[in-house]
Design a protein that fits this description.
With about 200 residues, this protein is mainly alpha-helical. The chain has eight helices and no strands. Helix content is about 60%, strand content about 0%. The mean pLDDT is about 85.
Amino acid sequence: AEAAMACLAVDPAILLVVVGVLAFLITFCGCVGSLRENICLLQTFSVCLTVVFLLQVAAGVLGFVFSDKARGKVSEIINGAIVHYRDDLDLQNLIDFGQKEFSCCGGVSYKDWSQNMYFNCTATNPSRERCSVPFSCCLHDAGQAVINTMCGHGMQARGYLEASAFIHTNGCIDKLVNWTHSNLFLLGGITLGLALPQV
């Protein structure tokens, strides 16, 4: 049950369904309230929008003030996703997309993939993927037409310099933090653009 709950916590499909249901309920109150001129529904709509806006502001302020704890939480989420990589296809596709997009591998380094039972590097692991990393960690040639899904085979057993010739060895947490810092104005503009219509 604990493993199932941990898997549900990082499942992007469930997160999207929950956000979609909440958005539908809030907009339904606003739409029906304005059509029927129902004060109760309009007040519910107004209160919900105010609560959502205040939660967004609070999350932004807390994320800025407690950036170290936010980084720890991101690290915890990424490590949980690594553990459940093979359990959920949606999660697997999301991790592969992130690793390709940010040219990274694992949380802190490519060795983090040992947390996954399939990629675990212990001698007792019977998996064919023992000591490997997912193909999304691999360096890809631009002219390569077919992706070699076994390119990460045995990479955890290699040293950092040796592995860096075949895969991205830097972790995704640092890459994500660096991307956030370098695109701070863009993220601020998007946040402001989303906040203005709510206000």
